User: What shape does this take?
Amino acid sequence: MFIQRKKFDHASLAYEVANSFKSFDLHMPGLVTAIAAVREIDGEHWVYVTTEGDLVEGNQFLLPEYDLVLATDS
Assistant: This one.
């Protein structure tokens, strides 16, 4: 599993970015799935991108300006 996040100043921008990940269709059943979601934490809006599956080894590419939250190979 590989989780990264980025803070956005405006909720509408965060939702737009999270929804844009749907256009990439990063899903190969059992091998890799990428899901983007918006979370509000203490009034701040974050986009979390979670990648998981058999092809995810915990050393995936960190998106520009995103922070690493979790990287694991199990």
About this structure: The chain has one domain: 2-71. The mean pLDDT is 89. The two ends are 7 Å apart (CA to CA).
